[in-house]
Each structure stands twice: as C-alpha cells, then as structure tokens.
Amino acid sequence: MLNFYHALARKLKPLQPLWLLLALASLVWLGYLLLLAPVALSQRWQLTATVCFAFSLNVMLLTLLFAEPATDGPATDFWSRLLNRLRYAGRYLLGCLVSVLFLLIVWLFLRIALGIMVPLLS
Question: Is the full-model pTM beyond 0.70?
C-alpha cells in the first residue's frame, strides 16, 4: 500500500497547485453557500462543495505525506530497530487513514450523484 501511495504521490506532485486552487475555490464556494446564497440553493449544493473541498485536501495530504519513499536508517541496536518499525507503522496507519477518507469521499459522491439523478429520472 505504501508503494502504491508513493507512486501515486509522485504522479500527482506536479499537479499540487491545481489541488490547492481547487481547495480554495471549493472553500470560497462553500462560504458563499453558507453565508450569502438563498436557502434552496445552499441546501442543494452544500454537500457537493464540502465533498470537493475534502477530496482536494485529501489529495494534497497524499502528495505531502507520501512524496518521499519510506527509508529505514541503519538499525544497529534495539532502539533504532524499534524506531524504524514505529515509523513504518505510523506511515502505514496514515496510509490506512487516507484510504478510509477516500472511501468516505467516494460514498458521499455517490450519494450526491444519486440525489441528482433520481429527480431527473422520475
């Protein structure tokens, strides 16, 4: 999993300004919906703006956390081996957290798509 995220982060690293721009645009859009938009418009598009913001932040988190491969230092004694294993476990837990966040974002996106498609088809 860590190798997959490292390869994905290397490919997404050049697009990091785009993800930042998308995050800022969706944050401005969400602020408009919360503060200035009519209630009907706000209720319709609030979840979409939140999901766009969460997705762009999650991609930025992925590119920041996994851009460098996990390297182990020289392990000569017990404490350095333990420290290397704890670092690896921490990176693996961060990878699991990013995976769970992506699954949650996909689930919310599917709910949005279902909410848009059902009224159109009925």
Answer: yes
